[in-house]
Design goal:
The chain contains 11 helices and 7 strands. By secondary structure, the protein is α/β, with parallel strands linked by helices. It has 2 domains: 142 residues, NAD(P)-binding Rossmann-like Domain (Rossmann fold, 3-Layer(aba) Sandwich), CATH 3.40.50.720; 92 residues, Orthogonal Bundle (ProC C-terminal domain-like fold), CATH 1.10.3730.10. Strand 1, helix 1 and strand 2 form a beta-alpha-beta unit. It is elongated.
Length: 250
């Protein structure tokens, strides 16, 4: 199949890089700003719309005459619903799937959540899911939950980078070389995430495994609780989700 990517920002580039090794993809075509979007839509079997939310209506209306029921449109933009895309296409037969991947897709560890539009079949949804699944994990939700998805996994890598940066700074403060500190933190986060995913043990129970009586870990955890880290992360995700919801109304 030929995959077309409209918009080569951070997410568009990540998707392009991730799909390069997919044996089903014969060619990846893409356009940057002022590219020939209509020509791309005419050639592609699957069209990824990775432009900014404020650009989406213009781009969708531009390519709409080139879309057919045999093509699949995958929208990848916070706050843009499949119903909006369908309305801009102005055709009742064009399948649309809404997706929210994140940037670790480009290294094979992405998290992509998908929701089917009103004209997308189970086969369309599975095709979109499979394109993302080869480079990470996927989930399917009702579309009404996509703003929550944006606030957690869509924006989530940025939260994790802040944690990595902060703990790396702590390592430097304690005398570790910068590269060593960053390695320790990043690998520790990766390993902790893999334990959660592979064991299905509640994170609180895994935390307790590390927390020995009167040990070092409990002192560190007390500082995190005093600093309201748990509450701050919750508020960050909720704020991002609310912003995603508000974009749809602007």
């Amino acid at each position: 199949m030929i995959v077309g990517i409209l918009g080569l920002g951070t997410l568009g580039r990540a998707i392009a890089a991730g799909l390069e090794g997919d044996s089903r993809v014969a060619e990846i075509v893409s356009t940057r700003r002022n590219g020939d979007n209509a020509a791309l839509a005419r050639r592609a079997d699957v069209v990824f719309l990775c432009v900014k939310p404020f650009q989406m209506e213009r781009v969708v209306r531009e390519i709409a005459p080139e879309l057919t029921p045999q093509k699949l449109v995958v929208t990848v933009a916070a706050a843009i619903t499949s119903a909006q895309a369908e309305c801009w296409i102005d055709c009742t037969d064009i399948p649309v799937v809404r997706a929210m991947p994140n940037t670790p897709f480009r290294v094979g560890e992405g998290m992509t959540v998908l929701a089917a539009g009103s004209h997308a079949t189970a086969e369309h949804l599975e095709l979109a899911r499979s394109l993302f699944a080869s480079h990470g994990r996927t989930a399917i939700v009702e579309e009404r939950l996509m703003d929550a998805v944006t606030g957690i996994s869509g924006c989530g890598p940025a939260y994790m980078y802040v944690v990595i940066e902060a703990l790396s700074d702590a390592g430097v403060k304690l005398g570790l070389p910068r590269e060593t500190a960053r390695l320790l933190v990043a690998q520790t986060m990766l390993g902790a995430a893999k334990l959660v995913l592979s064991t299905d043990i509640h994170p609180a129970a895994l935390k307790d495994e590390v927390t020995t009586p009167a040990g070092c870990t409990i002192d560190g955890l007390m500082e995190l609780e005093d600093g309201k880290l748990r509450h701050t992360l919750l508020r960050a995700a909720v704020a991002a989700a609310k912003r995603s919801a508000s974009l749809a109304q602007e």
